[in-house]
């Protein structure tokens, strides 16, 4: 495939060297189009050496071949990595003051961007508005990740790793193994109100569920993401033309949303952490210390949402559950998982160990995947997107 890789002026340009190497090793014909500022971070000889093509930033080079238009016309995919805030703004405005800008305007191929910038720049309303404009035009987005940034800062804005950008590019070039499949994924943690201020909840950030939704969309699925109390920064990772987001708060709201979205879905993945109990009564006013003593809170058990989905599933529909455990060892964790899988009646169960320093609110995860009858269907460890890929591999094998 003929791929144009645009490189813009950010320190993350060093990652794009590895991305170009991955693309060329996969057999693609890659032309690198850097901006002038990008060459301050990685020099022209490097781009020419790994792409095996001449590299220029100017619209005035190779004029006889009308290169400023021909590159975009011939491309089957254009990737911009890193995509700085400035570049995203120029793309949204349709500016074409360099070779990358003219290439982007001249192409009718899919465009994939990997944003990279400081967290404040990513959160800025102007950047978010530009991203909204680009998504409406069908531009595909991978990342940014939440992590360490230049200068020792940390937050959303870190460019996705080259392997993740490569996977997103490959998905756009070839029909995914989930093309046309309707998928519902839940993410986050439910909150059961005690009063207008307090609630019973859990530590789930929603990162794993959002990663599952993003991976499914990248593989061609039509995805509904039911997000329970997922922060904006986490949910941002699920921005994709193939993902519809439904926001819920409580277990009852999650149950209703999953039942509605799952009615015509072919795969239902229950990754959200559901509160096991809710208060029998919810105070209309904040409970205060001056009411006299510690107020008793009577609890009632919430319904088992995933068991209900499994019991109501149609022929051919797959239902997948997640389980978070705090076992003494791996053997105990798998025993608990198999018992839970049988009790709930799901097709696959994904189990991971959680604790104060693992599982929840972390960028990485380690899981065991159990297939029908509790058989081992795989393990995965790494970023939550890498874990999501392994889970979908196991699901695809069962379809």
Automatic annotation (TrEMBL):
Signal peptide: none
Domain DNA/pantothenate metabolism flavoprotein C-terminal: 178-396
Phosphopantothenate--cysteine ligase as annotated region, ranges: 183-399
Cofactor(s) annotated in UniProt: FMN; Mg(2+)
Region span, Phosphopantothenoylcysteine decarboxylase: 1-182
Catalytic activity: (R)-4'-phosphopantothenate + L-cysteine + CTP = N-[(R)-4-phosphopantothenoyl]-L-cysteine + CMP + diphosphate + H(+); N-[(R)-4-phosphopantothenoyl]-L-cysteine + H(+) = (R)-4'-phosphopantetheine + CO2
Domain Flavoprotein as annotated: residue spans: 1-168
GO molecular function, one term: phosphopantothenoylcysteine decarboxylase activity
Top-rank taxon, per record: Bacteria
Keywords, in A-Z order: Decarboxylase, Flavoprotein, FMN, Ligase, Lyase, Magnesium, Metal-binding, Multifunctional enzyme
Listed Pfam families: DFP, Flavoprotein
InterPro entries membership: CoaB-like_sf, CoaBC, DNA/pantothenate-metab_flavo_C, Flavin_trans-like, Flavoprotein
NCBIfam families: coaBC_dfp
Family to which this protein belongs: In the C-terminal section; belongs to the PPC synthetase family. In the N-terminal section; belongs to the HFCD (homo-oligomeric flavin containing Cys decarboxylase) superfamily.
Function noted in UniProt: Catalyzes two steps in the biosynthesis of coenzyme A. In the first step cysteine is conjugated to 4'-phosphopantothenate to form 4-phosphopantothenoylcysteine, in the latter compound is decarboxylated to form 4'-phosphopantotheine.
Name of the protein: Coenzyme A biosynthesis bifunctional protein CoaBC
Taxon lineage: Bacteria, Bacillati, Actinomycetota, Actinomycetes, Micrococcales
């Amino acid at each position: 495939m003929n791929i144009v890789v645009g490189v813009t002026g950010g320190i993350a340009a060093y990652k794009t060297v590895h991305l170009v190497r991955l693309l060329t090793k996969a057999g693609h014909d890659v032309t690198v189009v850097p901006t002038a500022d990008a060459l301050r971070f990685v020099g022209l000889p490097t781009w020419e050496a790994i792409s095996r093509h001449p590299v220029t930033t100017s619209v005035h080079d190779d004029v006889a071949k009308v290169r400023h238009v021909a590159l975009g016309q011939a491309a089957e995919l254009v990737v911009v990595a890193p995509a700085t805030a400035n570049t995203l703004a120029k793309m949204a405005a349709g500016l074409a003051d360099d070779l990358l800008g003219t290439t982007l305007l001249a192409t009718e191929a899919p465009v994939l961007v990997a944003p990279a910038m400081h967290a404040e720049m990513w959160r800025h309303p102007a950047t978010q508005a530009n991203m909204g404009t680009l998504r409406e035009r069908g531009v595909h987005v991978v990342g940014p990740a939440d992590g360490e940034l230049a200068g020792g800062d940390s937050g959303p804005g870190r460019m996705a790793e080259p392997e993740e950008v490569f996977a997103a590019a490959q998905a756009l070039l070839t029909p995914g193994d989930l093309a046309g499949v309707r998928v519902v994924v839940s993410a986050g943690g439910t909150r059961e109100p005690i009063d207008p201020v307090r609630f019973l909840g859990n530590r789930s950030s929603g990162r794993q569920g959002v990663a599952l939704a993003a991976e499914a969309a990248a593989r061609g699925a039509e995805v509904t993401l039911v997000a329970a109390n997922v922060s904006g920064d986490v949910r941002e990772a699920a921005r994709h033309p193939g993902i519809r987001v439904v926001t819920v708060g409580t277990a009852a709201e999650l149950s209703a949303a999953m039942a509605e979205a799952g009615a015509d879905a072919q795969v239902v993945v229950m990754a959200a952490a559901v509160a096991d109990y809710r208060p029998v009564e919810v105070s209309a006013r904040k409970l205060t210390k001056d009411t006299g003593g510690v107020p008793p809170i009577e609890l009632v058990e919430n319904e088992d949402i995933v068991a209900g989905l499994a019991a109501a599933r149609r022929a051919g529909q797959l239902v997948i559950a997640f389980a978070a455990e705090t076992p003494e060892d791996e053997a105990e964790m798998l025993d608990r998982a198999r018992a839970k899988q049988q009790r709930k009646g799901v097709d696959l169960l994904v189990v991971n160990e959680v604790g104060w320093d693992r599982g929840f609110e972390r960028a990485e995860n380690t899981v065991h995947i159990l297939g029908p009858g509790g058989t081992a269907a795989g393990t995965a460890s790494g970023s939550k997107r890498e874990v999501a890929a392994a889970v979908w591999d196991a699901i695809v094998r069962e379809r």
